[in-house]
Every structure is written in C-alpha cells, then in structure tokens.
Design the sequence.
C-alpha cells in the first residue's frame, strides 16, 4: 500500500512517529494509502527548519516573490487534470467539482501576484521639523495553516499563497483524510522557484495541531474546519500569544419570497444543496419559503429535480452530479441525523436512505433527502449535517424568515430569492451573516474580496483572502525619524505636538 510522507525542506520525508491514518477511496470504500501522523518532535523540527529559511525569503524583494506565484499559476494549469484526479480519488467529489476546487485556489494565487502593491507602506513627509514617519508591513515569521478535508486544494492555497507572498514561511497541516493534493501543491511550489523550507507540509492529527499551537516560533495560525475545533484552536492559540483566525461550520438559509422565480429558486437549491454531496461550508442546507403556497410550489418543483440527481463515482466524469461522502463515519452520522429528523416529526418528502450504488456497494454514497415542515427544535435544523440533505422550514412572513436566519448560531452564508429590490436591500442590510447572495445561492466572494462568516462560523478579526489576508499575515511597524539640520534642543521630557 502507498505510504505518504511529509514535505520538509523541499523533499519527501517519511513519518517517524509510527502512527498512521488510513486514506480511503470513498467511491469504493477501499484504503488506498496511509498517511503519517506527525509527533510533536517532527512538527517542531519542521518549524525550526522553516525559521532558518524565512529571513532570507523575507529579504527577497516582493516582486521576485510574486514571480514564484506567477509560475505556480502556470504549473497549476499545466497539472490541472492530474490534481483534480488525485483530489477526486481521495475526497470523492466529481472531476468538474475537483477542478473548481483547484481553480478557486488558483484565483487567490493570481491575486497574490499583486502582493508588492498590497505590501506598500505609508509615508508622511515632514510630520514635524526634520521628521518623517513611515509604516511598513513586515511578515510575522513562521505561520501555520490547519485545513479541512472538503477543499483540499483551495483552502491550503487560500492560506499559504498570501502568507508566503508576504515573506512568511508556512507550515501546512492538511486534513488527514485527503493529504495527497497538498503534498503535490508543495512540490509544484518548489518547481515554481520557492526556496526549500518556506512551505512545509506536516501531516497529522490533534497531536500535530497541538504542537503548532504550543510552538513559540509559530506567530500566526489560520484554521478552517468545524466549529468546536475552531473554538478550541482560537482559544488555545490566542492564549499562547499568537495571531489566530478560525473559520467554522455553517447552516446556510435560503429565503424564497412569493415573488421569486420558482424554477430558478428550485434549480439553485438543488445545485447548492446537493452539489459536492452537501460537503461545502457554503452549501444551502435550509430552504425558507415565505407562505404555504410558496412552500408547496417549491416542493413540487424540487421533488422531480432531486429524484433525477445522478449520484456516482468521479470516474463517471461529467455524468454525475455528486459523489460519495468522505468516510463511512460521515455517512453513518448523516443517516443518523436523517433518522432523528423522522423521529422528531419532520416530513421526509424524498427519502434516500435505501440508496445503494450498483458496483460500488462499499462506497460511502448517500442518496438525496428532502425534509419539509422542520422546526427550530429539531436536530436536523440545529446541526450542520454536511450531507445531501435539504431541510425546509416554513415561514409565514418575510420577518419570520429573516428571524430564522438571524437566530441561528451559524452565520457563514445566506441567500434570498426575490424579484423585489426593496426586500433584497433590506435583507442584505439587516442580516447578521458574513456572505449574502441575492438570487445567487452560493455567494462565495472572489479572490479580491474577502471570505468569512459571522457568529459561530468565524473567530478572529480578519477574513480570508483578499486584502484582509495581507493584513493578517503582516504586522505594521511605524518608524519616526529625524535628521536634524544642526539643531540642538537638549533632552525632551514630554510628548511633543508636531508643529
Ligand atoms: P474538522 O474540524 O474535523 O478538521 C479540520 C482540521 O482540524 C483538520 O486538519 C483536522 O486534522 C484538525 N482536527 C480535527 N480534530 C481536531 C482536534 N480534536 N484537535 C485539533 N485539530 C483537530 O473539519 P473537517 O471535517 O475536515 O471539515 C468540515 C468542516 O469544515 C465543516 O464544519 C465545514 O463547514 C467547515 N468548513 C468551513 C469553511 C469556512 O470557511 N467557514 C470552509 C470549509 C469547511
């Protein structure tokens, strides 16, 4: 069986802890590789090597650093098919979706080519007599990223591309479920001209994460994953004096107003609810039609669309809408939540529990489900399901629908479908959620804006990618300098106004 490695100092390094995790092919259920789980010593060694390499990288001019990103973009495009295949094989998502995963990361790398502009400081000439003042953005040093299984290309790139463009060295701890693509990305960064030691991939689990959080050389930590782990990493990282940003789980509501185009709304819900088997932090998992007539119409439109969804392995190419879940445990959890929905009284309009994929009986496939008439107290409404399950709650007014989204503990994304500009504007202004779509079901901001949720979906002050990433991965130093022209004033004992 294939044994994966770490990527340290520009080369594959075998794990030495003696601990491994199985990496599955979710379509067949077979173990296809094992990934080493780093010990604290292995993690600390990777950090120490990164710290040795970082000062020279920070001293490399920003334009030269940006050229590495430029070449990296070319290599990503060259190897797109290879990356997508490796990604689908370990994650299970369809090939077109895997390419989208790489593409959305690549777009952030493209944005990072403009890093020299974003790293420019500020300057005040003659702030006082003979006094100039300037601020510069300096890298933090060694920083780390801990990433989830569901976007094994995009999220690592969202983290390491801005961090490295700013002159930091980066420790990537990817998900142990699909670690191959992050390793391939590190190899491509080396081919693009990145000096060894600036991007280290350390595979592992909680032990490696804790070692990152406790390592005094690591100055900043970015995390993406589930909310309980986000909260844990945020508090432990902050307690250890690090700069930390953590992005957590989601329960994204889509409000459907009576004046919405129902076909458009149903198409949007099917794509956003079941795409990638619902394993997206921006998936729509709750539909909130306003009024029973709207709700009935929506169900009528949704059912045939859901029943026609094609579920299958990525090897079927463009012929599948979504693939398996990532692990057997994920499948069991999702089906457990579906059963809880039935027991707690929601109406299961489309029941995918008996779904079995011919020829792939051991794969982690789950058929699509649709619940109607769910209520706030049900687990299927309260919890992030992260599977192909769409839950409809009925609201009798716009205010009630707005209240559903606002009162939920998560605040990652949301959408409203309406033809009325006034309602759409009111919704965008009042909603307490970080990313909002108006007739757009998955409002993932592009690379030059920023990405981040509110409430229990995001911890920390700054968002991911866009200009915020450059703020997160740098710190400001302000210099006040005076070059006296023969002036001798003697000592000063109080703050002086600049006159
Ligand atoms: P996860 O929280 O299980 O794992 C994320 C990372 O944390 C992995 O690298 C994992 O090894 C590590 N980890 C897991 N348990 C840990 C522990 N006890 N201590 C320390 N580290 C630990 O999440 P996942 O299942 O890989 O990803 C799915 C979750 O990520 C969903 O909740 C989804 O909504 C969320 N997500 C959020 C965003 C966002 O931007 N808000 C984007 C993608 C995914």
Sequence:
């Amino acid at each position: 069986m294939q044994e994966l490695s770490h990527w340290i100092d520009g080369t594959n390094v075998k794990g030495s802890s003696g601990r491994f995790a199985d990496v599955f092919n979710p379509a067949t259920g077979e173990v296809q590789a094992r990934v080493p789980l780093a010990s604290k010593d292995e993690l600390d060694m990777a950090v120490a090597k990164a710290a040795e390499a970082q000062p020279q990288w920070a001293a490399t001019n920003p334009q030269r650093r940006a050229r590495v990103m430029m070449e990296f973009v070319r290599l990503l495009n060259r190897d797109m098919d290879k990356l997508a295949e490796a990604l689908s094989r370990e994650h299970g998502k369809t090939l077109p979706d895997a390419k989208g995963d790489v593409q959305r990361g690549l777009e952030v790398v493209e944005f990072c080519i403009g890093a020299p502009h974003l790293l420019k400081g500020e300057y005040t000439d003659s702030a006082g007599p003979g006094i100039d003042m300037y601020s510069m953005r300096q890298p933090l040093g060694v920083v780390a990223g801990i990433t989830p299984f569901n976007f094994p290309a995009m999220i690592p790139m969202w983290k390491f591309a801005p961090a490295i463009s700013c002159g930091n060295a980066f420790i990537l701890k990817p998900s142990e479920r699909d670690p191959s693509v992050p390793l391939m990305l590190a190899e491509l960064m080396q081919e693009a001209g990145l000096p060894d030691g600036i991007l280290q991939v350390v595979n592992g689990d909680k032990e490696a994460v804790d070692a990152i959080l406790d390592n005094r050389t690591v100055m900043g930590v970015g995390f993406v994953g589930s909310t309980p782990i986000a909260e844990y990493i945020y508090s432990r990282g902050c307690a250890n004096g690090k700069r930390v940003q953590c992005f957590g789980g989601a329960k994204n509501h889509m409000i459907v107003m009576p004046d919405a185009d129902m076909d458009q709304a149903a198409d949007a819900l099917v794509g956003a609810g079941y795409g990638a088997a619902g394993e997206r932090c921006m998936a729509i998992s709750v539909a909130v039609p306003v009024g029973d007539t709207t709700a009935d119409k929506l169900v009528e439109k949704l059912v045939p669309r859901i029943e026609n969804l094609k579920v299958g392995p990525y090897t079927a190419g463009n012929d599948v809408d979504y693939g398996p879940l990532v692990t057997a445990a994920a499948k069991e959890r999702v089906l457990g939540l579906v059963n809880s929905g039935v027991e707690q009284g929601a109406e299961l309009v489309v029941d995918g529990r008996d779904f079995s994929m011919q020829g792939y009986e051991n794969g982690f496939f789950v058929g699509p489900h649709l619940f109607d008439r769910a209520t706030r107290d049900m687990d299927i409404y309260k919890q992030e399901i992260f599977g192909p399950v769409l839950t409809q709650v009925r609201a009798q007014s716009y205010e009630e629908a707005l209240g559903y989204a606002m009162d939920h503990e998560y605040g990652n994304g949301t959408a409203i479908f309406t033809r009325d500009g006034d309602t759409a504007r009111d919704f965008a202004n009042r909603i307490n959620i970080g990313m909002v779509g108006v007739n757009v079901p998955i409002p993932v901001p592009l690379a030059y804006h920023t990405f981040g949720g509110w409430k229990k979906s995001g911890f920390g002050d700054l968002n991911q990618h866009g200009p915020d990433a450059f703020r997160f991965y740098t710190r400001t130093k302000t210099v006040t300098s005076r070059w006296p022209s023969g002036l001798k004033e003697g000592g000063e004992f109080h703050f002086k106004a600049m006159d």
Q: What stands out?
A: The chain has a mean pLDDT of 97. The pocket of nicotinamide-adenine-dinucleotide is lined by residues 146-151, 173, 175-176, 205-206, 209, 224-226, 229, 247-250, 281, 384, 386, 412, 453, 457 (CB under 6 Å). The first helix runs from residue 40 to 59.
